[in-house]
Design a protein that fits this description.
The complex is a heterodimer of chains A (557) and B (214). With 557 residues, chain A is of the alpha+beta class. Chain A is 73% helix and 8% strand. In chain B, helix 7 packs across helix 10 (198-212). Classes of the chains: A alpha+beta (557), B alpha/beta (214).
Chain lengths: 557, 214
């Protein structure tokens, strides 16, 4: 119920109640388009000019700030006049340094989205504002004609409006024109909220465009597709009317060519955009799609300029300059899109690695927990049960047979000692106490001291790494040492452990017979442990030996 | 006095010691309290758990060493769930007696444990067999220990634990005379000077083992 009434309310606001505000919003495009034209032009001139000098940094920062302010103003207008809540765009700051700042500004997708919105408001919004203002003005004039036909001099072709009847006959045309204007206002106002939501709103827009990159149309694409038939009909109708007027009147210089060309340009860009956004032509990546839209629009604008050149002077080929500019912009876009695609690929790869290592870490932890549970169950728990039984029996026999009771108590004491020893071994296998107490070097020294073969430890760890890294490094050494003693029949093992900057490296080399299986349960267990910390494990063990195990662990603390 | 953070063990240990004729002057739960009580109560021996709050690392050991630095005659018996040779080294580092380092397991054998407490209080040493084992495992080629007979090695291990000749004789079911002969032979083979008291001899043996096993 609540939802339904909300929907009705929104429809009413955009449909009828908000028509005045919608009209106001659409008309603001007229002054603003001049402003945005100046801003975008200034950026397009100042940035390439200063690009080879350090001056480009303040220019870029200032330009970014201006675009951001423009985007905020537009967001406020959409919110206040169209009643659509969108998040105001966030200010962003590039990284430090010359290149860092340039990259931070140029590489900010929000800048490009905001520029796109300002550009659309300039071209589409400006055209709409002019169209709507003229439509309303002309229609109102026609409706008011019966009151003032005598004082104005008005002709339609050879038809001179000098009588009330003729003026009244034109009133329905005026009313129809007003109705068309109303549709234009309502329809035009509907274009902007989805555009603003995607291009201006900081986080939501990005998430939306990424989430829908896989094929589902974005709200903008959807709105654009629905608007295309209306746009085409409007184009055909308007031009038909204008051509009819031209035919009725002078039929001399074919002036409707200008509306044909200008509106045709807009229609061509619109149609191309819908085509590219459609799933049958559109590639999967949103960045590539945007690039194609850009390419098509640039081609259309270029063609438009060439046509303008052709129908006017056809002398000096001036369109080469704007064409050059368009080509440069397109080239820049293609380069950044390429970089973005590469970034995306890197991210995808990273996600793959993280997914694999995370599931590996989860598996390893699971296996470890199961081993601990089994050890507790078969070891200490069983011993405590036996201990309890001995004590119970001793209690029974205390009065009748003190000697037997004493025997049982001794058994109980020995059993308690065994349980303690097993628990201690278990605890050491989970996390050696000396590692937590003293760190890697003493822990490895203790490990070496208790090994049944000769072990030399050389360590250079000036700063203690984070605990998980320490533990992983310790178990790499412990596992390699155990393998050397158990399987490789080694007599001497060398453990080297050193930290250089933020990388901890553990190398264990033995003099055994080699042939270790890196996929064995022990080595794969520590590999998962190491990889979960973004490290890598390398096992080199040719038959005949020697075996070397090397783990590299990043320890950004 | 006792420093142990788990109330269950602290109370058990207190009862065990009282039943065996000791007076427990203080039972505390952390390192600072340990140092403070040692200086105030001046106990004959302090029994200290390695792991104490707030860090639950080797807080107890550090506090015990601190107490011993400020009151050198304090005897320290460290008890722990695990033993590490390097901790024993730190305890023995000043070359004086009156230190012990035992697994908590050993408390179960009450008579042995009580004897160890008395030994430490009297200025001798008590080392856990596991520590001694760690001292004995790492042998290099040409180590003089290779020249000892298996029996002599057993005697050496018991000496290192801090037992007297009578204690060694008890443990190995030998006569005191036989033990004395083994001891003389060991000292000769390791080229250690005979000492007038048991615990000086023990310290010499430990010093020897520590220096050769690195």
């Amino acid at each position: 119920m609540v939802e339904a009434s909300e929907t009705t309310a929104r429809r009413a606001r955009v449909g009828r109640v908000g028509v005045g505000r919608a009209l106001l919003y659409l008309l603001t495009a007229a002054p603003l388009s001049a402003l945005w034209f100046g801003l975008l032009l200034a950026g397009a001139i100042a940035i390439p000019l200063t690009a080879p000098t350090p001056l480009v940094v303040p220019v870029l920062v200032a330009y970014r700030a201006l675009v951001w302010s423009g985007a905020r103003l537009e967001a406020a207008l959409v919110r206040d006049l169209l009643g659509v809540e969108i998040e105001a765009p966030l200010a962003r700051f590039g990284a430090k340094g010359y290149l860092g700042r340039v990259r931070g500004v140029v590489g900010d997708p929000a800048l490009w989205r905001e520029q796109t919105f300002l550009f659309l408001r300039m071209v589409l919004g400006g055209a709409l504002a002019v169209a709507i203002a003229s439509a309303i003005g002309a229609s109102a004039w026609l409706v008011a004609l019966p009151a003032m036909y005598s004082s104005v001099d008005f002709d339609i072709g050879s038809w001179h409006v000098d009588r009330l009847g003729r003026a009244l006959a034109l009133v329905p045309a005026g009313v129809a024109g007003l109705a068309v204007s109303w549709f234009l206002v309502v329809g035009g106002a509907r274009i902007w909220p989805p555009l603003a939501r995607v291009l201006l709103a900081g986080g939501a827009g990005t998430a939306g465009s990424t989430a829908t990159a896989a094929g589902e149309p974005t709200p903008v694409a959807h709105a654009l597709r629905r608007a295309l038939p209306f746009h085409a009909a409007f184009f055909v109708l308007l031009n038909a009317v204008l051509i009819a007027v031209w035919a009725f009147t002078t039929a001399g210089y074919f002036w409707p060519e200008w509306t044909l060309l200008t509106l045709g340009l807009l229609l061509a860009i619109h149609g191309w955009t819908v085509l590219v956004q459609g799933s049958w032509l559109g590639p999967r990546s949103a960045a590539t799609r945007a690039l194609r839209v850009h390419a098509g629009a640039a081609a259309a604008i270029g063609l438009f300029l060439v046509c303008v050149w052709a129908v006017t002077t056809a002398g000096y080929f001036w369109p080469m300059w704007p064409l050059l500019g368009l080509a440069l912009l397109l080239g820049g876009h293609a380069l950044t899109a390429l970089a973005a695609t590469r970034d995306r690929e890197r991210l995808t790869e990273r996600i793959d690695v993280l997914t694999t290592t995370r599931s590996g870490a989860v598996d390893a932890a699971e296996a470890e927990l199961r081993r601990i549970e089994r050890d507790l169950h078969d070891g200490a728990q069983a011993r405590l049960v036996a201990l309890g039984m001995s004590l119970g029996l001793a209690e029974q026999k205390l009065a009748s047979d003190p000697d037997a009771a004493l025997q049982l108590l001794t058994e109980a004491r020995v059993g308690a000692g065994e349980a303690l020893r097993e628990l201690r071994d278990l605890a050491r296998g989970i996390h050696p106490p000396i590692l937590a107490d003293r760190g890697l070097e003493p822990a490895l020294a203790a490990l070496a001291a208790s090994a049944p073969l000769r072990v030399d430890v050389s360590a250079h760890v000036p700063e203690r790494p984070p605990a998980p890294v320490e533990t992983a490094a310790y178990f790499v050494a412990a596992e390699a040492l155990a393998n050397a003693a158990k399987h490789a029949a080694a007599s001497h093992v060398e453990i080297r452990i050193y930290r250089l900057a933020d990388v901890l490296t553990v190398v264990v080399v033995d003099d055994g017979r080699g042939g270790a299986d890196p996929a064995g349960s022990g080595l794969s267990g520590i590999r998962r442990r190491v990889e979960a910390l973004d490290g890598s494990l390398r096992v080199v063990s040719p038959p005949g030996g020697p075996t070397s195990v090397e783990a590299v662990l990043p320890c950004a603390s | 006095m006792i420093a142990e953070d788990l109330a269950l063990l602290r109370d058990g240990l207190t009862r065990l010691l009282r039943d065996n004729g000791f007076e427990v002057v203080a039972a505390v739960g952390d390192g600072d309290a340990l140092v403070h009580s040692v200086l105030r109560e001046e106990p004959d021996v302090a029994i200290v758990d390695v792991r104490l709050p707030p860090t639950f690392r080797d807080e107890g050991l550090r506090a015990a060493l601190e107490a011993r630095r400020r009151r050198p005659e304090t005897a320290i018996l460290i008890v722990s769930q695990y033993v590490e040779r390097s901790y024993a080294d730190e305890l023995l580092a000043d070359g004086r007696g009156g230190v012990g380092y035992l697994l908590k397991d050993r408390i179960i054998d009450v008579d042995d444990f009580v004897a160890a407490v008395r030994r430490v209080a009297a200025g001798s040493t008590a080392l856990d067999p596991e520590v001694v084992a760690q001292l004995l495992t790492r042998r290099r080629h040409g180590n003089p220990l290779d020249r000892l007979t298996p029996r002599e090695l057993e005697v050496l291990a018991l000496m290192a634990e801090g037992r007297s000749n009578a204690g060694i004789a008890d443990a190995l079911v030998l006569t005191v005379g036989a033990v004395e002969k083994h001891v003389a032979s060991i000292l000769a083979k390791l080229r250690l000077p005979p000492s007038e008291t048991d615990h000086r001899r023990v310290l010499a043996v430990l010093e020897y083992l520590r220096s050769t096993s690195d």
